[in-house]
Write a structure and sequence with these properties.
By secondary structure, this protein is of the alpha+beta class. It is built from four helices and four strands. It has a domain of about 80 residues: Glutaredoxin (3-Layer(aba) Sandwich), CATH 3.40.30. Helix 2 links the parallel strand 1 and strand 2. The two termini are about 45 Å apart.
Length: about 120
């Protein structure tokens, strides 16, 4: 049996040639406000980086801001306590105060994907 190249065959050929849509990777951006080089500050940074590395390695950036050296930035961001982390991207912004030692609660509060979710879902 021979195909005559009708409309259904052409649609199948065109569908096979169409490029698959690329997944857009979500990039996360955080600002971590700390007060000096204290154990609590180091713990907050380590916990934030651990969360990011385990949930979306290589697709995040963390800017650490020492409020004792840059009080102007803390004032602009309305930082009332340290450590405070602000998730800047993706929107909407989220804030969490504390050292993020409870990884599960910190991830939920920051709106981070769970282990079984792909960080590119929902895009």
């Amino acid at each position: 049996m021979r195909c005559d190249g009708g409309p259904y065959e052409r649609e199948a050929v065109e569908a096979a040639r169409a490029p698959e849509p690329e997944l857009q990777v979500i990039r996360y951006s955080f600002q971590l406000y700390v007060a000096g080089d204290t154990a609590r500050s180091k713990s907050a940074e380590a916990n934030l980086r651990f969360l990011c590395d385990s949930l979306f390695p290589g697709t995040y950036e963390v800017e650490v801001i020492d409020t004792s050296q840059r009080p102007d930035l803390a004032e602009q961001a309305w930082i009332l306590a340290t450590p405070t982390v602000i998730r800047l991207a993706p929107s909407p912004q989220r804030r969490v105060i504390g050292d993020l030692s409870d990884h599960g609660r910190a991830a939920i509060a920051l709106g981070l994907p769970s282990q079984d979710e792909s960080p590119s879902e929902g895009v």
